[in-house]
C-alpha cells in the first residue's frame, strides 16, 4: 500500500507542476499558520474561520494544516498524493462554501462582491494530476520508490539465479546418472558372452 502511495516516475514536467503548486500553497499556509507574508497567523485565521465564516473548528484547523503541510509536502515531494489530496479537498470546500455564489470569474475589475472559482478549478485539476502521477523527479517519494524497486529487483534476481542454479544442478545430476548407467552397461558382459565363456571345448 505504501509503495503504491509513493510510486512515481522521473518526469521533470511533473516536478515543475509540483514545485509551483507547493510554493503557492506554502505561502498561503504560512500566512495562516505563522503570520508570514502579511497573514493573520494561526489564532487570527482560526478566529476568522470560526467566527466570521462560521466554519466548524475541526474543518478550520484541517484547512490551515492542509495548505501549510500540503505545500511543504509538495515542495519536497513527501507523500505527494496525500498532500495533493488535502489541498484538493480544501479547494472543494472553498468553492462549495465561499466562492461558488460569486460565479466563475475572479474579481478582476472589482465589480463583483467576491472572487469566483476559476482559480480553484485550476488547483483541482493540478492536484488531480499529481494524485495520478505522483511527485516526479527530485522528490523524496522518487528516492524511496526507486530504492524499493531496486530491492524488489534484487530479490527477484536472486530468486531467478537460485532457480537457474538448481535446474543446472538437476540437469547435471541427471546426465551423470545416465552416463553412469551407460558405463555400467558397457563394462558388464552380456549373458551370451558369459555363457560362451563357461562352455568347455570337448577336444
What does this structure look like?
There is one protein chain. With 203 residues, the chain is mostly helical. It has one domain. The protein contains eight helices and no strands. α2 packs across α3 (41-52). The model has no long low-confidence stretch (mean pLDDT 83).
Short description:
The protein is mostly helical and 203 residues long. 75% of the residues lie in helices and 0% in strands. The chain has one domain (2-147).
* First-last Cα distance: 94 Å
Total number of distinct structural domains: 1
Query: Main β-sheet: number of strands, strand sense, barrel status?
Result: none
Overall, the morphology is: elongated
What Rg do the Cα atoms give? 36 Å
Say what oligomer this is.
single chain
Total strands: the figure is 0
**What number is the mean pLDDT?**
83
Instruction: Catalogue the unreliable spans.
Output: none
Considering DSSP H and I runs of 4 or more, what fraction of the residues is helical? over 70%
Could you tell me the strand content as a percent range? under 5%
Structural class: mainly alpha
- The SSE string, one letter per element, is HHHHHHHH
> How many H/I helices?
8
What attributes characterize this protein structure?
203 residues, mainly alpha
Describe the secondary-structure layout.
Layout: H1 2-6, H2 12-34, H3 41-52, H4 57-76, H5 80-99, H6 118-133, H7 140-187, H8 191-198
Amino acid at each position: 500500500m505504501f509503495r503504491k502511495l509513493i510510486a512515481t516516475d522521473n518526469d521533470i514536467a511533473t516536478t515543475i507542476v509540483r514545485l509551483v503548486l507547493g510554493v503557492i500553497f506554502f505561502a498561503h499556509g504560512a500566512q495562516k499558520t505563522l503570520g508570514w507574508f502579511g497573514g493573520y497567523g494561526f489564532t487570527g485565521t482560526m478566529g476568522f474561520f470560526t467566527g466570521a465564516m462560521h466554519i466548524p473548528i475541526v474543518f478550520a484547523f484541517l484547512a490551515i494544516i492542509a495548505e501549510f503541510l500540503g505545500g511543504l509536502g509538495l515542495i519536497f515531494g513527501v507523500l505527494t498524493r496525500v498532500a495533493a489530496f488535502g489541498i484538493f479537498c480544501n479547494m472543494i470546500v472553498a468553492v462549495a462554501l465561499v466562492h461558488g455564489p460569486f460565479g466563475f470569474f475572479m474579481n478582476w475589475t472589482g465589480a463583483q462582491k467576491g472572487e469566483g472559482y476559476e482559480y480553484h478549478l485550476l488547483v483541482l485539476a493540478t492536484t488531480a494530476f499529481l494524485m495520478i502521477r505522483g511527485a516526479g523527479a527530485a522528490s523524496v517519494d522518487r528516492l524511496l520508490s526507486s530504492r524499493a524497486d531496486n530491492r524488489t529487483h534484487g530479490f527477484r534476481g536472486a530468486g531467478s539465479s537460485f532457480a537457474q542454479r538448481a535446474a543446472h544442478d538437476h540437469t547435471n545430476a541427471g546426465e551423470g546418472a545416465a552416463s553412469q548407467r551407460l558405463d555400467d552397461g558397457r563394462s558388464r558382459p552380456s549373458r551370451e558372452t558369459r555363457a560362451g565363456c563357461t562352455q568347455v571345448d570337448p577336444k
